[in-house]
Amino acid sequence: MTLLRSHLSGTWQTGSGEGRPLYDAVTGEEVARISADGLDLAGALEYGRRTGGPALRELTFHQRAALLKALGQHLREHREQLYAVSARTGATLGDSKFDVDGGIGVLLAYASKAKRELPNDTIHVEGDVEPLGRGGTFLGQHVLTPLHGVAVQVNAFNFPVWGPLEKLAPAFLAGVPTLIKPASPTAFLTAELAELIIGSGLLPEGSVQFVAGSLGDTFDHLTGQDLVSFTGSASTAQTLRSHPGIVRNSVRFSAEADSLNLAALGPDATPGTEEFDLFVKALTTEMTVKAGQKCTAIRRAFVPRAHVDAVVEAVTARLAGVVVGAPGAEGVRMGALASLDQREEVRRSVKALRDAGRIVFGDPDRVEVTGADADRGAFVSPLLLVGDPDRAEPHEIEAFGPVSTVLPYDTTEQLIDYAARGQGSLAGSVVSADPGFVREVVLGVAPFHGRVHVLNARDAGESTGHGSPLPQLVHGGPGRAGGGEEMGGVRGVFHHMQRTAVQADPDSLAAITGRWVAGARRHESDVHPFRKHLEELRPGDCLVAGPRRVTREDVEHFAEFTGDTFYAHMDEAAAAANPLFGQRVAHGYLVVSLAAGLFVDPDPGPVLANFGVDGLRFLTPVRFDDELTVTLTCKQLTPRESAGYGEVRWDAEVTRQDGESVARYDVLTLVAKKDA
123 and 143 in contact (C-beta within 8 Å)? Predict the structure, then answer.
């Protein structure tokens, strides 16, 4: 049988020896062998740092996003190929789509978010400028730059496609190369994925490497610039986190581990309500999708004591209709576990759980199987238990398969206490239409959960479900769940970057960040900034326009025209009694409108549109006969890679005749490129 190939240091290679056999979870047949013996993993790390890292750091966030999008589209074209291999892991077609399409979706979502939320630059400037002195000549700013290491990504067996892709996306966007290490039982599917990724030729050389087999002494060669992202058991996470190489070099280590996730049925969700039915459906789904092999699956189902029998009856009725068997067989809704070893582990865990409860559906030792041999394949029946929530076992033992335990509760306080006994979970669901109950439970369990999902009739139509991590939201949890965070939108990107506080004068800070800051030099010229194309603009280009006198007639006309007759603008006596004004004042939006009239160039030109205003603040009242001057300064340029224009952010400051600033804000425009 052929050894799975690794792709390290720019070449495909195989380990030495016969390797460990990997089996088809359905038939028990050997699929491939795996070995990384003799492979130079230290050299692979150095290759990633030396070749992959510089290539990625030359690209902007938007350019990396475009490559991620292209990769996602390429993988989408080869989904059927991945589905076919996925079936050999025991996954049904629905399970395979959850894994494969979910992973591709993460790539595409991150590509989209990067173009909306990150600059078309190689660094990210975070937050506002911090004044560090009274004179404005000493400023502070946080900047994020890519780490100069490799993201070593250790994946679990249950999501051999989604797992690697959700780790790859934020690392790649950050400019950090990846070394993918799959879990052995399903490594043959991740190997297929790696062949597609690397074979596409879309990504820079060295930006993605793949090792089929053990990491060996890899951790001995990590530096403070490298990262480790781990998904797997809590015990393995603890072992890896304490590795001398990680401790010695303070290597960033993020773990997403197993957890006792909960779903709580609210007292209002009585039998016959839509919420009751949603709870039953969610619990059954989480037990059977991926044969329950999901780190987010519901393990503890908390139910008001009065409704336990009704829940058990409804869930067992649904489970009775679940056909277990070969993924391709007609009617099959649940496939096999990933391996025979995993089946034995589930049986051991269920035996321990029975010490604190009883099985009300299923038999851990027997299951009727369609289209396959129940003994040769890693099949197990869905198993529903009713347990004692005051015993430790339901809160400590996870059977990583189609297993869940119904646990009764009497009060909301008791429910929250039981939830905390899981010692940290990835996900929890609260199924209720009672906002008061929802608030109390969500805030009560939040310290122990990475994500809390509220389900009721109002959001059910759009809900992605209890067990679906989303790229926009953090995936991880405290305590037993690993203490890490993955994804979470751009938060996941920033995890792969170094945040540095820069202290400097305004001109130096502008040069470092590539954007104009208050106090830095401005550049006036005879050419109106709105007459310049995107490539001709530079941060600091400015226009000073005015003055424009504000009259009583202006204010009264604006009030009549807009309908804004607020007393501070129109009622002399009421305005005089206002402690902030003491007399009638101009509308803030009138000030902004007059400022636009001062700086806008009316003729057709490179400026295509104004698409927004950010950070508008009215600082000082404007009274009748005040004279306004506006200073408009090019602050930041963001070219759009695939468009004939880019975004320009302008600093607008409106001042009175005495130099007092009356309004400050950013104007956002779309400006054409010269060749467009």
Answer: yes
Residue 139: Cβ-neighbour burial (10 angstroms; 0-12, 13-18, 19+):
buried
Residue 256 annotated among the catalytic residues of the structure:
yes
What is the predicted pLDDT for the residue at 1?
Answer: 61
How far is Cα 496 from Cα 243, in angstroms, rounded to an integer?
Answer: 20
pTM above 0.85, yes or no: yes
Question: In Å, what is the CA distance from 280 to each residue of 316, 317, 422, 431?
Answer: 9, 10, 22, 10
Distance CA 676, CA 665 (A): 29
- Burial per residue of 9-37, b for 16 or more beta-carbon CB atoms within 10 angstroms, e otherwise: beeebbbeeebeebbbbbebeebbbbbbe
Q: How much helix, strand and coil, in percent to the nearest 5, is found in the chain?
A: 35, 25, 35
CB 340 within 8 A of CB 386: no
For residue 3, what is the DSSP state? B
Contact in structure between 79 and 104 (CB atoms under 8 Å): yes
Among 256, 275, 286, 485, the active-site one is 256
Identified catalytic residue from 166, 192, 286, 295: 295
pLDDT for position 486: 80
Q: What is the pLDDT of residues 178-209, one digit of tens each?
A: 999 999 999 999 999 999 999 999 999 999 99
Cα separation of 196 and 208, whole Å?
Answer: 12
